[in-house]
Amino acid sequence: MDHNPDRICVWPGYFDLKRSRRSGRRVPKDASVIKPDLEGLFMAAREVGLRKIKREEGTSHPRRPHGKEGRLWVSAAGAKESIGAGSKEELLQLIGGQWRQMQRDRKKQDEADTAKGPKAGDRMARSQRKITAPQRSNFKKRSSFKKR
């Protein structure tokens, strides 16, 4: 692949809360997220205001060849004109802060939904004994009580 100085490569591993700075996290802990993925990174970049973005799935970071995390290519000129980020570090911190906020909002929404309880028509969720589909497939009814 040819070198293009206008493109900035952004990996989801840069935002991993469980990684240390030495092992690859590039943003402070208050701008990092739990279990980063390419889809979340893309959505956060869109929310920040970036428009010239290209997703590349299934690629691995050179220092982490075992994980196929994917990467995002961002236009440096597009980032400068749309959000005013002059450097890659500014861009990463803006994306990380937005992504962290999105994750917090989603967690609050999930907590509110569980506190609200199941819907009126959902008989499976309202029942006392909840057997999911995988549990049903593992349950085998004995056909007879004969000796084997």
Condensed summary:
This protein is mainly α.
Helical proportion, percent range: 25-40%
CATH class: Alpha Beta
How many helices does DSSP assign? Answer: 5
How is the CATH topology named? Answer: Phenylalanyl-tRNA Synthetase, Chain B, domain 1
Q: How are helices and strands ordered from N to C? A: EHEEHHHH
- Approximate shape: elongated
CATH superfamily: Signal recognition particle, SRP19-like subunit
Structure commentary:
With 148 residues, the protein is mainly alpha-helical. The chain has a single domain (7-112), classed as Phenylalanyl-tRNA Synthetase, Chain B, domain 1 (2-Layer Sandwich), CATH 3.30.56.30. Helix content is 39%, strand content 9%. The protein is built from 5 helices and 3 strands; from the N terminus they run E-H-E-E-H-H-H-H. It has a 3-stranded antiparallel sheet with strand order 1-3-2. Helix 1 (38-48) packs across helix 3. The chain is elongated and about 75 Å long. The model has no long low-confidence stretch (mean pLDDT 86).
